[in-house]
Amino acid sequence: MPRPQILNEQEINKKLKDIPLWDIKDGMLVREIPNQNFIDAVGKLNAIAIIAEKLNHHPDLLIYGWNKLRISTKTHDVGGITELDFQLAKNIDKLNY
Predict the structure, then answer these.
(1) Contact at 8 Å (CB) between 87 and 81?
(2) H-only helix segments in 1-97
(3) Helices 38-55 and 83-93 sit at what angle, rounded to 10 degrees?
(4) CB atoms within 10 A of CB 71
(5) What is the mean pLDDT of residues 79-91?
(6) pLDDT at 63 (0 to 100)
(7) Taking Cα atoms as reference points, which of 84, 50, 88, 55 lies closest to residue 71?
(8) Does residue 62 contact residue 30 with C-beta atoms inside 8 Å?
(9) How far apart (Å, rounded) are the C-alpha atoms in residues 15 and 32?
(10) pTM above 0.85, yes or no
(11) Can you give the residue ranges of every domain in the chain?
(12) What is the pLDDT of residues 49-61, one digit of tens each?
């Protein structure tokens, strides 16, 4: 199966309108999710891991400051943001966190 193409800046900015909770930082799509506590953050991380596994597209997940979860994604094997990253972000947003 061919790998997706890297999106250009104009395409990325257009697609960002569909996922307003996400930003671009350091060449990746990034979303920060504050949580009530550490257990809540871990639970959300686990739910996101299941979505990522189903898509076979895995973001970087970081729990920091005891209750914050940062999701960062780009398509590592092609070196940039692709449609797969936006698909992952939309699926994560469906969790309504």
Answers:
(1) no
(2) 9-16, 38-55, 83-93
(3) 140
(4) 24
(5) 98
(6) 98
(7) 88
(8) no
(9) 18
(10) yes
(11) 9-93
(12) 999 999 999 999 9
Pairing type for strands 23-25 and 28-34 reads antiparallel
Token pair listed for 76: 């590592």
Structure tokens given for 79: 């070196």
The encoded tokens of residue 10 equal: 């104009």
Which CATH number is 9-93's, of 3.90.650.10, 3.30.1360.20, 3.30.565.10, 3.40.50.2300?
3.30.1360.20
CA 37 to chain centre: 21
Length in residues, the chain: 97
Residue 71 structure tokens: 């999701």
Number of other CB atoms surrounding residue 65 within 10 Å: 12
